[in-house]
Model the fold of this input.
Amino acid sequence: MHQILLVDDESYVIDDLEISFPWDQYRIERIHKAYSGMQALSILEEQTVDIVITDISMPVMNGLELIRQIKAVKPNLPCILLTGYAEFEYAKEATKYGVVEYLLKPLDVEKLASCLEKTVLSIEEQIRRALSYEQAMNSFREHLPSLKDRLLNQLIEGNL
Amino acid sequence: MLKEKFSKENASIFQKLALGLVLMFVLIILIFWWIYRLNVDEIQRELQKNKLGEVRFMSSQLSNQFEQVLMNALTLSEDQSVRGYTYALTYGNDFAKYKAKLELMEKLALNSASTAWNNTIILYYPDEKATVSSDREFSFQPFVMSKDPLDKWTLHMNKDGTGYYSHLTKGHRGPMYIEIRISLEVLQKMMSEYTSGTPMLYDSHFKTAIRGAGSSQLAEADAQVIPQIRNDSGFFEIKFQDQNYFISYMKASILDLYFIDYHLTNQLQQSISRNNTLFVLALMAMLLLSLLYTLALRNQIQQPIIRLRKAIDRFDRGDFSSRVDETQTLEFRILGRSFNRMAENTQTLIEQVLLGELSVKEARLKQYQAQINPHFLYNCLNYIQSKSSVKDYESVTAMTLELAAYCRYIHRIEDMDTTLGEELRFVNHYMSIIHMRKKSITCEIHVPKQLLSIRIPRMILQPLVENGVKHGIEPSMGPGKITIRAEQDQEFIRITVADNGVGMPAERLALISEHMDELTRPEEQIGTGVRNVNQRIKLTYGKRSGLSIQSSLYEGTTYIITIHKEDIADASDSVS
Done:
């Protein structure tokens, strides 16, 4: 199960989103909310967040700046950008920073859903891959003494 | 060389004029000097001629007198009583001798007195050892024969300057000599009667100078003068004791006696040069006067030119109301009037163009206002979508109604103006929408009721409020508040729109304030909104009204609309 961080200075956007969106369908169990860039960074330090969704236009630290700072610390954390009117060009530029996706306001829930689906799946894929690598390493370590035995025997018998 | 040429071209008319004047005067003085030299030469030539004439006259006079005296004596030698005296001496008794002597003496004295020159006649009878003279002194002295050469004028001169000329002649008949003595006093007297110069006689044979009374100081000049006396006549100049003398001389024909005239040339030259000085001084005064006149003229021309140039400069800098005052000089009055007329026309034209530009701007502004800000609209739509997603239909309804009212006001562009109350209501709609989206932003309005009805141009408050929200409150983190107040005093109505946002640095404020009154700066993006509001206020109410901004960093910005009360009446009149 995952945790998500929602960032927007206009509080109603994330407040409403928190209520209206079926988060658990996407195996998201916990929702963090931040009303400014600074707040978002402090939450990221304390919590293990898997996905960030942020608005672009915010005072003091805008969404792009926030993402840049997040990527500096956690390069693999997937970020989704919310863009209002006339911020589309910014959003395109933001793909350079490793933004997974950008979504237009007013928010189309289905687009958010598919975007989340994709992101969650890729996260899980990553985790699974990491897990199987771990398993392989473990069994290798387990079997290492018998492997060494076999190699020695073969050397003695002159089969090599 | 180049520099000189440059400066010549740069010299003003008056410098050239002054230079010309000075050159002209220098030329006049040169010509005058030349003519003066010619005159002096001419005068000197005339003087020489005169002097020579006088000297010739004097020397011929001398010759004549000497000759006459001599002739007289010779005539005397033919006389009966002179010849007969020897008989009386030889054959007469003492009484007869004495009587004859007395008679002869009387005769001689008479004869001597009959000539112009006083002279002494002495008769020598060497055989009889007798002397008879017109002067008693000689007649009764023992017989002493004169040792002078015969038939020659001989000078006898004492150290003190007295003396005489004597001439000894042998009588035709019988052993008898006649001596004539002419005293130097006679010559000195003659010289003293000569007044046109200082005369001197010089006997070249005896190398002796005979001077008249009062000319003894010239004796020292003899060393210079005497060697130059040659031939029968001539003239030359000497300088003696700082004085210039013109000296002319001529020899008397019967003896080696020169008549010499010393003439002081300085006297003449002094008077001429005094006249010259006067003339040059007068010329200088004239030059000075004409320079002064030029200067006065220059002032009369320069001053109007400077005034005209200043007016043109002012006009050039953009002060289209620049005019020239009337001046005294006719030419410049005409020029000034032409300039004023031109300036008038240009000003009218420029104002027309600016007005045209303004009205184009106004039209564009209306068009701009009629469009609802898409960013704003999107935000509203986002709000509606968001609220509907959580089934908060109250908020959806409220937002929809506010947005509808907002749009209605914006699209009523056919109305030129509105009341302050209407405008405030519109601002209220705007702020309600903002408040719904961001709860931390609020709005307060404090306007006295009697001011709600004043007429103002539409959409002059909303851009200021929007500015306050967008540039003041939204960039700050804290809760924001827009406060709108209106107040009035005797002269003005002031409407202030204040935010408590981030404010702006002084440089930015200065930049915005600086360009607030400029009409033509379409490319400048800074403060376009406030400039627009300012210009529309000025367009409606005139130059006394307008917008000003106060701001301090981190404390907020205040926009102040000042409207002159008198102009409100005018504005509403013109609108109605």
